[in-house]
Design a protein that fits this description.
The complex is a heterodimer of chains A (376) and B (327). Chain A has 13 helices and eight strands. With 376 residues, chain A is α/β, with parallel strands linked by helices. In chain A, the strands form two sheets. Chain A has a six-stranded parallel beta sheet, with helices on both faces. In chain A, strands 5-6 form a two-stranded antiparallel sheet. In chain A, strand 3, helix 8 and strand 4 form a beta-alpha-beta unit. Chain A is globular and about 70 Å long. Chain A starts with 23 loop residues before the first helix and ends in a 23-residue tail after the last helix. Chain B is an alpha/beta fold and 327 residues long. Chain B has two domains: 182 residues, 3-Layer(aba) Sandwich (Rossmann fold); 127 residues, Rossmann fold (3-Layer(aba) Sandwich), CATH 3.40.50. In chain B, 36% of the residues lie in helices and 18% in strands. In chain B, the strands form three sheets. In chain B, strands 3-2-4-5-7-6-12 form a seven-stranded mixed beta sheet, with helices on both faces. A five-stranded mixed beta sheet of chain B has the order 9-11-10-13-14, sandwiched between helices. A two-stranded antiparallel sheet of chain B has the order 1-8. In chain B, strand 13, helix 10 and strand 14 form a beta-alpha-beta unit. The longest helix of chain B is centred in the N-terminal third of the chain and has 15 residues. Classes of the chains: A alpha/beta (376), B alpha/beta (327). At the A-B interface, strand 2, helix 7 and helix 8 of A face helix 3, helix 4, helix 5 and helix 9 of B.
Chain lengths: 376, 327
């Protein structure tokens, strides 16, 4: 596979032709019939394959498959009562987290919402520590205190796992503020669902990010439902990338079923952020194949609607492209599948065998500087 | 020791700590170019520059959250609320992010941040600008809550709060910014968090008071002294963690206690202190604990009504007389 230098940034706040405007190809993709859409994504993806080296392509595919299988296993463990609380699965949206995070450096930051198992793994956390956290074990990434919605790992700059809709947006803005304050070129990826766009936190944060030129990349994962309420029933103006215009922020509309499209759009945003401390808003159109959480009966949408989107399953699309372009052979696909399966099984074994947090852990980590009152 | 106002003492603390540690920065509405709505941040922009002293838009939720995010990766923000009334908009980030981050990350992300500004009643600014919110914040494990009553305490406690690795809610009192007092000149002077101060020693009754109620309690103690009642006045200074030991020791000596506060009585800090005293020193009490709290109404505008809503010397004197069975 040839390596090429990435294309220069083509979308900026100053470039009104592209800011907040769905590009032609995406507009057609969104509008066409399912089979037409599938063909469009495939042809777009094939063009993009040439820009990425083989090792990266395989790594991206492996990660997408890993988080898919990981989530399927999580669902199983949840159904058998091994995982408690809420459990929001990412199945269907893999291209977003994997595509975007594949474009950043290890020392860049990621913050996201409560639907974050995939982001955590993509950022470099071990499936073991994520699964153990789901199991509420002491070996979990948050030592059993956070659970499904509060994964953290300081070593890989994964900063959570936040469970109030939109709550991570000001936090990520602050992390980006700190990078600029310290004069580093680290960027921050901030993921959130489209429902968070209705929160004040989104608008307040974007305003400050552009006002102060902060290197934060806001990635709206528009899966078209805020729990059981469709976008149409919740947002007066549904063109989310357009909202960036209100804050003079560069924006792009991205097909979230095409992992390489997400990666490329993120790369353009990274260039703006690293060089010029500029924020970007990406609206990434995706779809979740499972319920909002494991307890969601899903009666707000039809089976047919879900199946229509499943035709554009991001993993199927990507594997078809890889196959057609000869990046991976059938036997290579099979061995990746087997490796991923073993990885997930190993994560489950690790979680099963790990100890529960010790009872005294209840009272640790409340304060970094605990004070015994009255003591000087 | 120099005699300075509470406002100047706070300003000194901010300046000294920002000079001491370049990771400390100050942000809030009108803190920089305007020099602070109450002039607490006067001169800081000029001396420390716009990178360190930052005017924010009026966007409390997001700049509070921005501060918490910056604290996650090593900065030490001081976030000023022009008044704590506006912190109500930011409570999601203070409570859901700042207070819980260390715990829910299994000890990985400490949040060294100070949220500060004036709270409590002011001068006829009515319901939405006259709120004592300390019991809200003190409710949450993960937060520390500090309320100084003298310029020296204000300076020493603010320096401790800025050096502390946990989120600290630092509530100043709007009516007290002009109050004067002696402040040590020593640049290393600090007052530790979590330590109560005996503002006046006495033997017959204990008055626990914080913030605006400390000078009021001290005046009440003077009045009672003339009547032959010796009052001990204790200022917890830190509401969470509460130095209940110092309070209980005093109660064991005096056997009578009045808790004075500016805030509403229901679910307030005085209720908590009363309960703690009952659990720890019931056998030492010669009378039920008596609370003197602000009126259980939104703050009115009219001067005469506002005066009635805020505890005064006469009310504290009457309460002490009641627990001493002098009436």
């Amino acid at each position: 596979m040839r390596k090429r230098t990435p294309e220069p940034a083509r979308v900026g706040a100053e470039d009104t032709s592209a800011t907040g405007v769905m590009d032609q190809e995406m507009a057609e993709t969104a509008a066409g019939s399912p089979s037409q859409q599938t063909r469009d994504v495939k042809s777009a993806q094939k063009n993009r394959l040439a820009d990425v080296d083989r090792e990266t392509l395989i790594s991206i595919y492996r990660q997408m498959l890993l988080v898919r299988r990981f989530e399927e296993k999580s669902a199983e463990a949840y159904s058998s009562g091994k995982i408690g609380g809420f459990c929001h699965l990412y199945i269907g949206q893999e291209a977003v987290a994997i595509g975007a995070i594949s474009a950043i450096r290890k020392d860049d930051y990621v913050l996201t919402s409560y639907r974050e198992h995939a982001h955590a793994i993509a950022k470099g956390m071990s499936p073991e520590s994520v699964m153990a956290e789901l199991y509420g074990k002491s070996t979990g990434c948050s030592r059993g205190k956070g659970g499904s919605m509060h994964m953290f790992d300081k070593d890989v700059n994964f900063l959570g796992g936040h469970a109030i809709v939109g709550g991570q947006i000001p936090l990520a803005t602050g992390v980006a503020f700190a990078s600029k304050y310290k004069g580093t070129d680290q960027v921050t990826l901030c993921f959130f669902g489209e429902a968070a766009v209705n929160q004040g936190a989104f608008h307040e944060s974007l305003n400050m990010a552009q006002l102060w030129k902060l290197p934060c990349i806001y990635i709206c994962e528009n899966n078209q439902y805020g729990m059981g309420t469709s976008l149409e029933r919740a947002m007066s103006s549904q063109d989310i990338s357009q909202k960036a215009r209100a804050y003079d922020i560069a924006a792009e509309f991205v097909d979230g079923m095409d992992v390489l499209a997400v990666r490329e759009a993120t790369q353009r945003a990274i260039e703006r952020a690293r060089k010029d401390y500029l924020p970007t808003l990406l609206e990434v159109r995706t779809y979740r194949f499972m319920g909002h959480s494991m307890s969601d009966p899903g009666n707000y949408r039809t089976r047919a609607e879900i199946e229509r989107h499943q035709e554009r399953d991001p993993i199927k699309l990507f594997s078809a492209s890889l196959k057609e372009e000869g990046v991976l052979t059938d036997s290579e696909f099979q061995s990746i599948e087997a490796e991923v399966k073993e990885q997930v099984e190993q994560a489950v074994r690790f979680a099963e065998e790990s100890p529960l947090p010790a009872p005294e852990e209840l009272f640790t980590d409340v304060y970094a500087n605990p004070i015994e009152p009255g003591k000087h | 020791m120099a005699v300075v106002t509470m406002r100047e003492a706070l300003n000194q603390a901010l300046r000294e700590e920002m000079l001491r540690d370049e990771n400390v920065f100050l942000m809030g509405e009108e803190v920089a170019a305007y020099q602070g709505a109450y002039k607490v941040t006067k001169g800081l922009l000029e001396e420390l520059g716009g990178k360190r002293v930052i005017d924010t838009p009026i966007t409390e939720l997001a700049f509070a959250g921005l501060g918490v995010g910056a604290a996650m990766v090593g900065l030490r923000p001081i976030v000023e609320f022009m008044t704590f009334n506006f912190s109500i908009l930011a409570t999601d980030q203070i409570i859901n992010s700042a207070a819980k981050m260390l715990y829910m990350s299994g000890g990985q992300f400490k949040i060294p941040i100070v949220f500060r500004g004036p709270g409590g009643s002011a001068f006829q600014v009515s319901s939405q600008h006259s709120q004592a919110l300390e019991s809200w914040f003190a409710y949450f494990p993960g937060l520390k809550v500090v309320m100084p009553s003298t310029p020296a305490d204000a300076k020493g406690l603010l320096k401790s709060a800025i050096r502390d690795d946990d989120p600290v809610i630092f509530i100043e009192q709007e009516r007290m910014y002009g109050n004067k007092g002696e402040v040590p000149d020593d640049a290393d002077f600090i007052v530790p968090l979590g330590v109560a101060d005996i503002k006046r020693e006495g033997t017959d009754a204990t008055i626990v008071a914080r913030s605006l109620m400390v000078p009021v309690a001290l005046k009440a103690a003077e009045v009672l002294e003339k009547e032959g009642v010796s009052c001990e006045v204790i200022d917890p200074r830190t509401i969470r963690p509460l130095d209940i030991g110092t309070i209980v020791d005093s109660v064991k000596k005096t056997n009578r206690v009045v808790v004075a506060e500016e805030s509403h009585p229901f679910c307030g800090v005085a209720a908590e202190i009363s309960s703690e005293i009952m659990e720890r020193a019931f056998d030492y009490l010669d009378a039920p604990v008596k609370r003197v709290s602000g009126a259980d109404v939104p703050m009115p505008y009219a001067k005469n009504l506002e005066d009635l809503a805020i505890p005064n010397v006469d009310q504290i004197v009457a309460a002490v007389r009641q627990v001493a069975y002098l009436d």
